[in-house]
Amino acid sequence: MGNPNRCSVIIVGAGISGISAAKVLTENGVDDVVILEATDRIGGRIRKEEFGGVTVELGAGWIAGVGGKQSNPVWELAHQSNLRTILSDYSNARYNIYDHSGKIFPSGIAADSYKKAVDSAIQKLRNQESNVVDDDDEDDDDSILSETTPTQKTPIELAIDFVLHDFEMAEVEPISTYVDFGEREYLVADERGYEYLLYKMAESFLDTSEGKILDSRLQLNKVVGEIQQSRNGVLVKTEDGCFYEANYVILSASIGVLQSQLISFLPPLPRWKTEAILNCEVMVYTKIFLKFPYKFWPCGPDKEFFIYAYHRRGYYTFWQHMENAYPGCDILVVTLTNEESKRIEAQTDEETMKEAMEVLRNMFGPEIPDAIDILVPRWWNNPFQRGSYTNYPIYVNQQLLRNIKAPVERIFFTGEHTSEKFSGYVHGGYLSGIETSKALLEEIRKENERKTEGQAFLIEKKLNILLYNTVVI
């Protein structure tokens, strides 16, 4: 009796890479695909929530890389879906830098500090590049030494350093996204959410009704715990005790999930693969939303982003008002990253609100009103995300990237972390899903050829035996 849970391909994860991979497979005739998603929704790190009367994006929030010679595929999807977006201009942020006592740094000082930071970042990159080219161990030691013994930075230098390296890297580093697709960035501000693009994509190959996916090929709340592979196929076990069999698996879990060993592999993944996974750095990026009874901050397009200069790097540094996106919403967003994100996730929202209010009162005075609501996403502590995106160094070891991407027998890997040029971006996840499924389709074609050749060989062998027996008789 055939196994009802047997299919050609199992896709683990229904983020943008999993959905785009499934779409390409079904368009190419492999439609017995099953998508196993650990949560109760599709989208992965693209996630909207209603807050303060508007729709806000907890994860990916921008379409980065627009206006260049090539068209960004995610921008095209947004255009087709008529997704509402607002141009974001970070360049004015450097002229809206507040010190601890609420004074704005004069534009001359801000511009000088910014130029110095950019020059120093470019110099550092050149050193890194020459280290990669020379592959000289002594140089590496020197650069590590200079990293660990930095000169004391002033609050404005720390703030600009944070903004440069955690936000505006395109101005310093030759990031493919901006080189290929253009330098503009658009904030998604649509009540249907950024995730609407995924629903539109899913609709093209899954049965849906009134925006809801009803197709049994998408299985929600299915936490994959184990992947077993043999010569003939793959067996996937979920934590609720279900078994799924397939010829292949596409694993679109984030690099943070792979590092956390939520999923076990039988036989274990080879050492070259596990080392590559462990050598990836995961960035945690937390947007904290605060709703106020009225706005007390300067508004206008050139005031959208503002910066708090403090002696602690990344401490409530980068702020944005949401008035450009949603006029009259009275919402501020502050972005924290990495260690600050992890610290915030571990404390209560009340403590976070208290810290944020103290910083805002340092900038705008003691009379400002208290926030009436707060929203703190927790990407690091989410067992199905474990971080926000991959943070590869600019001059990354190419072998590491190849090993991250390479399949292990019948398990194929996809996601923004496997994108050589666009890791960390939504379009990186989208394009990686397409690329992985194309590689898998090629593998399926080869396997079918091998089977056909094998069957032809067996038929020939049987015919020869038959002929031989006939002649002998």
Give me a quick take on this structure.
The protein has 473 residues and is of the alpha/beta class. It has 13 helices and 23 strands. The protein folds into 2 domains: 6-46 and 194-280 and 387-450, FAD/NAD(P)-binding domain; 83-189 and 285-375, Polyamine Oxidase, Chain A, domain 2, CATH 3.90.660.10.
Low-confidence stretches: 133-149
By DSSP (H or I, 4+ residues per run), the number of helices equals 13
Q: In angstroms, what is the radius of gyration?
A: 26 Å
Give the total of domains.
Answer: 2
Which fold name corresponds to the CATH topology of the largest domain?
Polyamine Oxidase, Chain A, domain 2
CATH class group of the largest domain: Alpha Beta
Largest sheet: 8 strands, mixed
Structure commentary:
The protein folds into two domains: 6-46 and 194-280 and 387-450, FAD/NAD(P)-binding domain (3-Layer(bba) Sandwich); 83-189 and 285-375, Alpha-Beta Complex (Polyamine Oxidase, Chain A, domain 2), CATH 3.90.660. Helices cover 38% and strands 20% of the residues. The chain is built from 13 helices and 23 strands. The protein has helices spanning 16-27, 73-80, 107-134, 137-148, 155-166, 176-181, 196-203, 255-260, 271-278, 338-346, 349-364, 398-405, 426-472; strands at residues 6-12, 33-36, 48-51, 54-57, 62-66, 85-88, 97-98, 184-188, 208-209, 212-213, 218-219, 224-229, 234-238, 243-251, 264-266, 282-283, 285-291, 305-308, 318-321, 331-337, 373-375, 389-390, 411-413. The strands form six sheets. Strands 1, 2, 11, 12, 13, 14, 15 and 23 form an eight-stranded mixed sheet that branches. Helix 1 runs parallel beside helix 13, helix 3 packs across helix 5 (155-166) and helix 9 crosses helix 12. The two termini are 40 Å apart. The model is unreliable at 133-149 (pLDDT under 50).
